[in-house]
Amino acid sequence: MYPTEIIKTIIVDDQTIIQKDVETLVQTQPGFIVIGTCGTVKDAQKLIELSKPNLVLLDINLEDGTAFDLLVMVPPEKYGYKVIFLTAHQEHAIKAIKLGALDYLLKPLDAEELQTALQKVSKEPPAREDQLRLVNQYRNGAIPSRIALRSQQFLQVVEIGIIKYCQSDSGYTTFYLSDGRKIVTSYYIKEYEEILPESQFLRTHQSFLVNTVHIDRYYREDGYILLKDGTKIIVSDRRKEFVTKFLTTRL
Amino acid sequence: MTADSLASYMRGTINPIFNYNRTDSALPILDSLKPVVDRFNNYQTTCLWLRMVAIVKAAEGDLDSAQLLVQQAMDKAAKEDTTQRELLAAKIGMSSVLADKLEIDSAIEIAEEAYYLAHKIDRTALPLLTIKLSKLHMDAGNLPAARRYLEDGLRVSVKPAHRAVLTHELARYYEKINKIDSAIIILKQLEKDPRFFSPHFIATVQENLGAMYNANGQYDLALEYQLKGLAAAKKAHTDNSISYFNVGTTYGFLKQHEASINYLDTALLLAAEEENWSFQRRAMYTKATILKDIGKKEASWQALDSAYNLYRVELDSSIFHASKDIETRYQVKAKNDQITSLALINSMTKKTSYQQRIIIYVLACCVILGGFIGYMQIKRRQLQLKLKEATMQQQVLRSQMEPHYIFNTIAVAQAIVRSGDITRAKEFLSRFGRLLRLSLENARQSLVPLEAEIKALESYLALQAMQYPDKFTYSVEVYTEYEQDAVLIPPMLIQPFVENAILHGIHDLEHSGHVSVTVNRDNDMLICQIEDNGRGFDNGSQSQHKRSLSTAITQERLDILGKQTGKKADMEVVDKQMKGLGNGVLVKLKIPLRQPK
């Protein structure tokens, strides 16, 4: 048997009391050691450059800047570390993180959630540059034109325009793309409804989110939408009114 | 007399005349009504009158005039009729006229418009429209569409008359798709239906049954029904060359030549009366075939010759009709142009007299409006002030209860609990509880007691000190016995500066920082100082941006307060280094106090 690989972890949070708390939680996980804690972008940059961690638990708001500033200075792909964001409540930042399909945990931390997140860490590659670019563009107020989708096997950045529709099935969401590909992700459809441009994506049904660019016709009486490629998308009875309004006023 | 009673009079008098196919006698009545209708100038009666005259014209065969009249009714209805009922009636009329003119496609188009309109405003018109549309589609050869309308019609119709006609059409549909047996079954049911008594309709059903049996080769039965049908038609005075021709043909099939020729002769006579050249030719041709069958060669040849002559007449007459048609069209167009130019002149004269009146109105309005604007300006300024205050309240609410702060504080509480320091955890939670309660209470008011605000501030500072241990110390000094001082201030005026001092002023100092708050009273002004020993203004940094935003909000709130109390509120934020007072930021606030009512 090979010895399990040790995951060297750094914790970055501007409150020392939280640093310590997260440290104790991580230390109890087999295979994880905390090799450093700090509270500023400046210190975190030095620490990463010197100690080459495998994982950084990263609070978004730091004393002298934000977590995203840090990731630009020491790109995770280049330094080979993975990131899990920590945040109390920052809706916009969380949406940005979701758009880039990055990992995050909410404060106050739940010990079990942290454990699940840590167990997944070793299987995943470090955040790529294109993922981070998506996050930063969104944070700067740009309407996203691409989105990162993470399936069990791979991570794919796709143009939002080629998404035909999303279909949910018990916690999983399947993306149907206009080039015929399908991508299954493990987020709820509601989360995508929040981050995809609301002027372009239409929730027609509990299980369907449709890209209006691909809509050909709407059969109101029969309760479905016909896409340009001939796919039929169900419109639920209680959304008919909304769909009519959406299609007549926003397009 | 009202427009309504006029309309119902017209319906009551003229509709029965139409129903008995005596359209010609309707015209004098309609003509006599014209001045009355014109005087009323009511869209309902005018549209009704136009449509009725159109029916008369159509019955006379003057389809172009009929179309023009219906078009006028349609235009008027489109302009003036908000209920759209007259528009619906006009569209139905137009589709009939177009169908009569054999412009089937246009007739279908307008009938379908009417059909959708009827769905919206008057479902009682649906049976009639489904009948019309199924007939039209059948004529156009679009059988699936015809069937759709038939089914729809049978679904929406309750009146026996409508159902009978639809059923009859269904039989025609079956005939077209070559299911003669089904057609026969349906027609037989119709014939026996006791609810339907119109001899004209019975005649049609029976004649059709005859035609079906003929198509099936059952000539005996065909003859029986055709004769019955003819008898019924005679009773209804609707017998024409076609009925006789059909009977004659069937006799021919049954080899009863004499009878056949008799009926065909009658058909020829009637067709000549009707000026129906093509029928005359067909009858003559059939007669020739029969004469040939019984060996009367010469008579047969003569009949054929007449058929040929009739064919020429038919050709000539169709050419004549075409040229006449062009002429009528030209006349219609000329009349149209005349009407348009007349309408134009009318509206021009109306306009000029309007213009003068409008100028007077506008001037009067201007004077009144001027007065109003002055008054509204004063009102608006008062309103704006109120509005601004409301917005500010919301902003305060948001900054006070910021979810991020709450969740973060809970995370810290959790960390303290996990570290096992129960005494500290208890203290932390009780302070947090107090702060939450105070800010929830304070946030709803635009003014709060000074004491409550100071307590909230102390709780906030204590919590921050526990969250950033060893980072800073603090002091809060308030003038003596302020607890007994029943004065009010706006909530959350001081707190943002304290927050700035902690988060932006002293956050990454090498040494421990200090934040001091002093509050004094000078008559009805509250003098507050918030001071730190941090790094002062750090121009251009992100924290500096947040700092200036909260400062701007406070400045605005103070301005409003100043206007409300009539006393000058003031704010001063200085970098101590600039004034040679050491490091850090000093904020001075002058807040006008208000007494509880």
From TrEMBL, chain A:
It holds the Pfam family Response_reg. Residues 157-239 form the HTH LytTR-type domain. It comes from Chitinophaga tropicalis. The modification 4-aspartylphosphate is found at residue 59. GO terms for molecular function: DNA binding; phosphorelay response regulator activity. Transmembrane segments: none annotated. The keyword ATP-binding does not apply. Keywords: Phosphoprotein. Gene3D superfamilies: 3.40.50.2300, LytTr DNA-binding domain. Residues 8-122 form the Response regulatory domain. It comes from the Bacteria. This is Response regulator.
